[in-house]
Amino acid sequence: MRVRTLGLLAMVIAVSVAALGSASAQPRRAIDFHDARYCEIFELRGALPDVRIKVWNTIGLNRCPAAKWEALDPASLAAELGAQAVILNGPRHFLMDSASGKTGRVRSIGGLRMRKVATIPITSAADLDRTPYTERTIGRTTIWQWDRGRRVYELLAPDGSNYVMQSYAQIIDPELTIGKLRRLGDRLDLPKGWRYRTRRLNRDLKLRAKGKATIIQDDLQNTYQRLPRKRGASPPKRHRVDVIGMTKTVGSPTPGTVVDRGTFTGPPFGSGSIDIEVIFGGPSVTGTFEIVSRRGSAFGTVAMDYTISGSEITFRGTAEFTGGTKKFRGIRGHDLKAYDHNMLDGQSGSVKLRGFARY
């Protein structure tokens, strides 16, 4: 159970802070949540494929006094509750101004008054995985509200998805405060194409979850919920891709890795620069590429086989767009034909990328 419990710890921390209000009980009045400190206790029962986790939360009952929280012992709490294991999650701080939904009963656990806010089922080993910047869909029904004029903190994904931070954590960084969130983007290890943004709202923001919500966490375990697409947003359109470029090898950062850079021209990007990095493995290479033009950038992955004839090397395979910026934000494209021909010294490369993409 120890390995499974550690996996559950990672997974539950990723989903439970988004579950406040999902327990089946009577609705209660909204509370002022903004920068409200809270802590959670996860009560684990059962074994895979039938694990049930009760989530207990201090919000609205107390501010999770540090002395009491730090004195809690998970093993003792498990014995007190008759649970298979107990996991501590906190302290955290909510960022919305108010929330409404449904909650459960109140009880004292380890000397802290706590409210049951969710029951989370875990049915497979896949549920135990936790990776930052990876979406999870959970079941709940709530309404979060940020008032007009409130500052919000967001993650923008290259596929066009927008996530608003609902709580920040003091688990990895105990010194993190709301005042430090404006510059949090400088600290995050964001995936390629992701952006951190902060802004003030010019109108109230209501974020509803009607039975389910999609959330992610950053690498500091701060939690965000995905915003719905704007009404009337145009669906992605199909565009022909026909890029031709000239490149030269500019470096080899690690053994077996080659970086080529150069220029390109062709629809739908126009003209600009191209950057390719591949790793050799047997008779093939895998890697990444980025196309940059005045109208924005697009990036993705490539997988190609290669052949050598005399002093020449030829690559043929496929490429995929995984994201972009500006005009090409949210670009997607699969199974594009990729071609690269060069001399073995890497100084006379010609590349082609053909197919279709949507954005």
Cα-based radius of gyration, to the nearest Å: 25 Å
Shape: elongated
* First-to-last CA distance: 46 Å
Number of strands: 22
Low-confidence stretches: 1-15, 21-30
Order of helices and strands: HEEHHEEEEEEEEEEEEEEEEEEEE
Number of helices: 3
User: Which structural category do the helix and sheet elements fall into?
Assistant: mainly beta
Global mean pLDDT:
87
Sheet having the most strands? 11 strands, antiparallel
Helix content: under 10%
Strand content: over 45%
Describe the structure.
With 359 residues, the protein is mainly beta. Helices cover 8% and strands 52% of the residues. The chain is built from three helices and 22 strands. It has helices at residues 2-16, 66-71, 74-81, and strands at 37-47, 50-57, 85-94, 98-101, 106-109, 112-122, 136-138, 141-146, 151-156, 162-169, 195-200, 205-210, 213-217, 223-226, 238-251, 257-266, 270-281, 284-293, 296-309, 312-324, 333-343, 349-358. Strands 1, 2, 3, 5, 6, 7, 9, 10, 11, 13 and 14 form an eleven-stranded antiparallel β-sheet that branches. It has an eight-stranded antiparallel beta barrel with strand order 15-16-17-18-19-20-21-22.
